[in-house]
Design a protein that fits this description.
Elements: H1 4-28, E1 50-55, H2 59-67, H3 83-88, E2 92-107, H4 117-126, H5 129-136, E3 141-143, H6 169-178, E4 200-204, H7 209-224, E5 229-231, E6 250-256, H8 265-268, H9 287-291, H10 293-298, H11 302-319, E7 322-335, E8 339-340, H12 353-358, E9 360-361, E10 372-377, H13 392-398, E11 406-408, E12 414-416, E13 419-425, E14 438-444, H14 458-470, E15 483-490, E16 493-498, H15 505-510, H16 517-520, E17 546-552, E18 556-561, H17 594-623, H18 636-642, E19 649-653, E20 663-667
Parallel strand pairs: 1-10, 4-5, 4-6
Antiparallel strand pairs: 1-18, 2-6, 2-7, 3-7, 8-9, 11-12, 13-14, 14-16, 15-16, 17-18, 19-20
Helix pairs in contact: 1-17, 1-18, 4-6
Length: 669
């Protein structure tokens, strides 16, 4: 029989051998991908070898290319006219996601009787938003009340105790009766409470048959309230039309937001901007609304900013200076026969950044790694300089090339990317911060690099911010007027300071594409808009998950995955770069020399041999023990590592590679 001491000693040998093996694996391995399900929150990718953007300008040709397996996804929103054809096809999926856009009617609250809150609320109750989405948009929009679309994390949509979705004409008429809007002359139309006649003219600046149908439903709602309503327009020269001189009743508009920031709430409906051209078109004035403005603009705390945005939406929802009608949905179409893991992110749908990062070849076809994912692009790129383009089709291609401190996750929320963490300081937090200033301190991940294998450090980030600020006319410098400092106290810490207090400064710098200092310092900020490198003849120095590998003007742009990407999901053995250095704590900053990988592999094999030998010895001795074997073969060393039962689990490295690894239990189920 095995003594307790002998048993314990053997177990310790096994634990030690296994620990050595795991340690060596952790030095050279990268996180193994979860091939069955890839959570949106996981930062591992890319899985495909190549991306190809095919220039296909015509919608008909894009649909044809998808149906004929010439592309794997349409890179733009799909017109509803193709829905039935696509949905009937084999191996084609059509999905929808909320867009950061909506249609709405602005009401001139500076004109009597539209300045009466109850009148505007009655109009809101009289309009059938559900009908607009169901009949006019044929289900390709959803009713919306809030001025912030539901696609935006700041939206209160769905959290209000009441909605205006379904027309409630009896309630609308009741409100008008109670306020004195009566048909005193029996002409079939209501007069104002002061007895004066008035009509309602609904203009528009958007021209398309579907928009005209929306306006007609809105007009029917007004007439159901016995209001003398008519239409006018469309006016193509908005906002130079006379409405800017406050001479309009109601105006149907459509808007799309380019970011998830909502600081515009402080301007669009601010009382001080009533009467200003291009701002506060409804001429809305409300002291309660204005009282939240300072907190929205100048708090540095997210929760306080969120509270202000919430309360401002509630006030607008009740006061109705605008009546939001619907939020559009983005239709995406893609093939399902070879790839899986497509991500339907808000506003951008399947063609967005996250699909390119997470899509992977099906396991049954030899995946998840490899293959080429093909998308259509409606226009060719106009430049490889992302700072010098205004084309979203160009940015479809260039978005994969550069990284930022913060990235927007598939649900539209902030996700730390190059920044591992950050904190915010004002004078009340740190006396060293001047009064009225906001200081952000970012801690960067330590294994990011450029495609030429130079390390990406805080020095690159500070250089980028200062480059944008100093470059005359650079679009990324437009919001840096209040910037007072951007510097790197060490290689992996960044300090950025603004002369005003505001949470929104975080997004100003957080979403900026970072450029390599060792490349752009010789170009100079004054030459920011001059076309530079022309790939593939000249290799672009980038940091993103892909880089340009081939380009034929007017036909396609090919990108190949970056094997050294800092959130990589594949095992690689990177060669050391010219800037690899050992830090003060003895850790190598970027990659590991190949000889460590070789030694690690040899010792790992030797460690496995030791484990096998010890287990054989252990099991042979157990054969002669008197205790039943079913109580002995528990592999307690696994439990000592995981503190979980070992059945059905194996050791996996699932944490993104940041220079250290965490042991997790990964189910085989």
């Amino acid at each position: 029989m095995l003594s307790l001491a002998q048993s314990f000693g053997i177990r310790r040998c096994v634990v030690a051998a296994l620990a050595v093996a795991v340690l060596l694996v952790s030095l050279e391995a990268v996180p193994a991908p979860c091939v069955e399900s890839l959570p949106e929150s996981t930062k591992l990718g890319p899985y495909i070898n190549k991306l190809i953007f095919k220039v296909i300008p015509n919608s008909d040709e894009q649909v044809f290319a998808l149906l004929n397996d010439e592309i794997d996804a349409i890179g733009d929103s799909v017109s509803p006219t193709y829905l039935s054809r696509l949905m009937e096809a084999e191996d084609i999926e059509v999905t929808e996601t909320f867009m950061n856009s909506y249609g709405y009617v602005a009401i001139n609250t500076g004109r009597y009787p539209f300045n009466i809150t109850g009148f505007r609320r009655a109009v809101a109750f009289g309009v059938d938003k559900e009908r607009i989405s169901r009949e006019v948009w044929d289900g390709l929009s959803v009713p919306l009340d809030s001025v912030i679309p539901r696609a935006n994390p700041f939206s209160i949509e769905g959290n209000s105790p009441y909605t205006y979705y379904k027309a409630n004409v009896p309630l609308g008429n009741q409100l008008l009766d109670e306020m004195g809007f009566l048909d005193t002359d029996s002409d079939g139309f209501r007069e104002a409470p002061d007895g004066s006649n008035f009509d309602v003219v609904v203009g528009t600046t958007v021209f398309a048959s579907i928009f005209e149908e929306v306006r007609q439903v809105f007009l029917e709602g007004l007439r159901g309230l016995h209001l003398n309503a008519s239409s006018l327009g469309p006016f193509f020269d908005w906002p130079s039309w006379e409405c800017c001189d406050i001479d309009y009743d109601m105006m149907f508009l459509h808007t799309r937001f380019t970011t998830m920031d909502v600081d515009w709430l402080a301007y669009e409906y601010w009382s001080s901007y009533a009467g200003e051209r291009y701002w506060n078109l409804p001429q809305f004035e409300n002291a309660s609304y204005d009282s939240w403005r300072d907190q929205l603009l100048h708090s540095t705390d997210y929760d306080e900013v969120y509270e202000a945005a919430t309360e401002m939406q509630k006030i607008l929802l009740y006061q109705c200076p605008v009546i939001v009608l619907y939020e559009n949905v983005f239709l995406s179409a893609y093939r399902t026969d070879r790839f899986e893991g497509q991500v339907n992110e808000v506003d951008d749908g399947i063609p967005g950044w996250w699909t390119k990062f997470k899509v992977h070849l099906k396991i049954s076809l030899g995946g998840p790694f490899g293959a080429t994912f093909r998308l259509s692009n409606s226009m060719d790129i106009d430049t490889f300089n992302f700072m010098a383009t205004g084309s979203r089709y160009t940015m479809n291609v260039l978005d994969q090339l550069y990284d930022s401190l913060i990235k927007r996750d598939p649900g539209g929320r902030d996700m730390m990317w190059l920044a591992e963490s950050y904190f915010t300081e004002t004078h009340s937090d740190n006396p060293d911060v001047p009064e009225g200033h906001t200081r952000f301190v970012f801690n960067l991940i330590r294994n990011a690099s450029w495609t030429d294998r130079f390390n990406l450090t805080a020095e690159d980030v500070s250089f980028t911010i200062n480059f944008y600020r100093e470059a005359p006319g650079n679009p990324y410098g437009a919001d840096l007027a209040d910037l007072t400092a951007a510097y790197a106290p060490n290689k992996y810490q960044l300090v950025v300071e603004f002369a005003t207090e505001s949470y929104w400064h975080l997004h100003t710098i957080g979403y900026m594409p970072i450029i390599p200092e060792h490349v752009f310092e010789s170009i100079g900020a004054a030459n920011w808009n001059i076309s530079g490198v022309q790939p593939p003849a000249q290799e672009m120095v980038t940091s993103g998950p892909f880089n340009v590998s081939e380009y034929v003007q007017g036909q396609f742009c090919e990108q190949t995955y970056n094997p050294y990407y800092f959130y990589r999901c594949r095992v690689v053995d990177p060669a050391p770069s010219a800037r690899n250095q050992t830090t003060a704590d003895g850790n190598i900053e970027q990659g590991f020399p190949s000889f460590i990988s070789q030694v690690g592999s040899i010792v790992f094999i030797g460690s496995l041999a030791v484990i096998v030998g010890v287990l054989i010895l252990y099991l042979v001795q157990l054969k002669h023990a008197s205790v039943p074997s079913r109580h002995r073969v528990r592999y307690p060393f696994l439990n000592s590592i995981h503190d979980t039962p070992s059945d059905g689990y194996s050791i996996g490295l699932l944490k993104p590679w940041h220079g250290e690894n965490t042991l997790l239990a990964t189910s085989h189920d």
